[in-house]
Every structure is written in structure tokens, then in C-alpha cells.
Amino acid sequence: MHLELLCGRCGGGMSGGCGSGRGTAVVKRMRLFFCYLLPCSLILIFVAAHSRMSSRMLPMCLPQTKVGFLKMHKCASSTVQNILFRYGESHDLNFVLPGSNNYLGKEAPFNRTQIAKVPWRGIGYDMFAVHTVWSTPEVRALLGPAATFVTIVRDPVDLFESLYTYARWEHLFKMSLPRFARAVSLNTTRSQDFLTVGAGYSGHNQMLHDFGLPERDSYSEEKVKQKISEIEQDFDLIMVAEELEASLVLLSELLCWPLDAMVALPVNVRFPQYKRPLDEQTRALLRDWLWADQMLYEHFWHLFQKRKLEFGAERLQENIAKLQRLNYEAREVCGVSENYFDNLTGVFKPSSNLVKGYDVNNRTRCVNMARSELSYIDILRRRQMEKAVVAAQERASEGETNRLM
Q: Which of 29, 152, 183, 374 is least surrounded by CB atoms within 10 angstroms?
């Protein structure tokens, strides 16, 4: 039986409309199949195939350009900051920056009034990535409700050792770190002798200080737990300094940035000879004294391990290996060599003679990877000042046009 006899001539739909000879139950079933079920199935197959093809062609996520990064002290945060600076600059994004130096608050939480008079005010902001005492409401007010918040934590004993050496507190307090650990263990509430000694450091529970917890609250277990819960709600990813490569892989996925955007040189990292190994007794004393930061670290370390499992162990190792290859290739292309403070000049001179600096070739990407933090912030300031001037000129031109009209 030809299809035209089933579908072409009847035109009456499933309810009939053909002669009695063709109105048998068999013909009706054939008409149902050939005229309706088969065409609909073919259409559904086509749509499904087209959807699969389209999903391969379109990105699964959109790159995030509203990012708030809490630059934690002595937690490999300068390396992460350099990644954000390079991505932001190459994508014409605007940064929340102080009018001078590299801090937006050292003791009190960040407030928008701190940047109310900067020359580039009014251009709009995309990223926050400098040292501060964190305030989620204030940063979100600048970046918008959809901003992604990230930071990084580190074992508090290792953090404090780094801070003690980097800030040269051995000379300030006139005692070695092991002796200092024994001194604070005699009275764990006596922090006032070494709190806020300069350069924005708190010293005691430095991470919680950077997160915005007042020093007085760091002695209350209830308030520390409350702060940890608040941080977990506010931040989309807490990275771990001891697992920096895994952290950057997870950051790449979270922000939907290509993995090659995570290529970096270790910035502000001490030479091995300036690191002070600690005996177990000293570590135990410091861990007790820094119990609040220890609680914070353990909580987010466990959450980080869970995040790794969700990502997939095999997939994570593949991405780490890929990132390592990309870093190796970048070093080869840039001709990277480590160098000491006294041998470096200009934008490559680090902030301390204890940390590594780099010699690289003059490719723009290579220079920016090796730049010191202060040098890079100065570049971003100049760029945003130029934007502000252009914006002011456009507003003036529009005003003149409106006046003439």
C-alpha cells in the first residue's frame, strides 16, 4: 500500500476521512505509524543529534570576570595575584586598587571610602586582588552580586615561620623563633607585644585577621567557628598553598579560564637557605598558640580534599601534569633564570632580599610573569588613570553636544 493512499489523500488526521475499504483497523494502525509516529521520531532524533553537536561547539561555561581574591599573607598568594593581574590586564578588566602602595586596609576591614578619591573612581570594577582585611559586603558592593570569591590558606605554623623570617622579627623581638614559641606558650593570651608590628601583619592567627575577625574574637572558640561558617558561605573556593598546582586546576575550572592562564612563576618565594626548619616541640607550641588559625586551616583543608574528589582524581592528575608541562614550556620560551635581589633591577627587583627574583627575555608575557607586585600595581594604576581621562573627555564632549542642541 502506497503512503499517498495512507497520508496523502486522506488529510483528515487520525480520525479517519478515507473510504470504508481503507478504514479497517489494520489501515488505521499503519496510518498512525507512517503518518505520525515515524515522522515525529525522525524529528526527535534530528533535534537530539543537533543538540549534541551544538553542545560540542559551545562552551560549557562562561569565563568569570568578576573576581574577588583575598590576598592572604605568606600563602603563595603573590603567585595567584600575578595570575589574576595578567588575565585582567589582557582582558581589559578594572581592578580595585589603592591610590598608593599595595594595601587596602591593614587593621580595620576594607571600606569603599578608602578608594573614594582615587583618580579612576567611576570607571567600574571587575577584580579585587590586593592585601586587605576582608569585608564581603564592601567588596561585593564594588564587584556586584555575581562576583566569585576565592582565597588560599596554609598550615599556620609554616605560615608563621615564613612571616617571622620574612619580617625579621628575630631582630625586632630579639629572640629566635623557638625561644619565641616557648615565651608565648607561658601565656597564650599575651599577643599585644607583637601584634600589628608593621607592614600590615597581625602575627597571631594571621589568616583569621586577614579574613576580618577582630583579635579579641580569636580567643573565643564559638566566634571562631561562627567566622569559619561565614567564610564557607561567602567564598566559592578556598585553595591550599601546600597543593598549589591542584588549587590552580580547580581555580581554572571555577573561573572557566583556560589552564594556560594558570601558568606562573613562584612569586615572593624565599631561597632555601632563608627557611628555618623547626623542631617538633617548637611546632607543637606554635600550633597550640595558633589554635584558631589551625581550626580554620583544618576545616578548609578537608573541604579542599572533598573538592578534589568531586573533580575526579584521574582527571585532576591529568590536569596537574598538563599545567606542569605548560609551566616548563613557559620557562623555556621565557629563558627564565633565578637571581638574587642585588643582581636584579627595575620591575624584576623583589620586595625582599630573602626571596627569589627572575631574569627573563623581553616578551610581554614573560616580563609580566616576573614583575614584582608593586611594579605591576603601578602599571594597572596608570592604565586605569588613562581610562579615567578618556571617560572624562567623553563626558565633557557629550555635555558640549547637549548644550549646543
A: 29
Q: Which three cell numbers stand for residue 276?
A: 628555618
Q: Return the SS3 of 204.
A: coil
List Cα–Cα distances, 13 to 7, 16, 24, 32, 200, in angstroms: 8, 6, 15, 9, 80
Question: Do 99 and 118 touch, CB atoms closer than 8 A?
Answer: yes
**CA 175 → CA 179, 183, 191, 252, distances in Å?**
6, 10, 16, 42
Residue matched to cell numbers 496523502 = 8
Neighbours of 36 (CB within 10 A): 13
Range of lowest pLDDT (113-127, 199-213, 370-384)? 199-213
Phi, psi of 248 (to 5 degrees): -70, -30
Q: Are 102 and 374 in contact (CB under 8 A)?
A: yes
The rounded distance, in Å, linking the Cα atoms of 134 and 389 is 30
Is there a contact between 203 and 177 (Cβ–Cβ < 8 Å)?
no
Count other Cβ atoms within 10 Å, centred on residue 317.
12
280 vs 365: CA distance, rounded Å: 42
Task: Say if CB 215 and CB 290 are below 8 A apart.
Answer: no
Q: What is the pLDDT of residues 225-267, one digit of tens each?
A: 999 999 999 999 999 999 999 999 999 999 999 999 999 999 8
User: 249-253: long-range contacts at Cβ-Cβ below 8 A with a sequence spacing of 24 or more?
Assistant: 249/311, 249/316, 249/319, 249/320, 249/323, 250/307, 250/308, 250/311, 251/80, 251/150, 252/319, 253/311
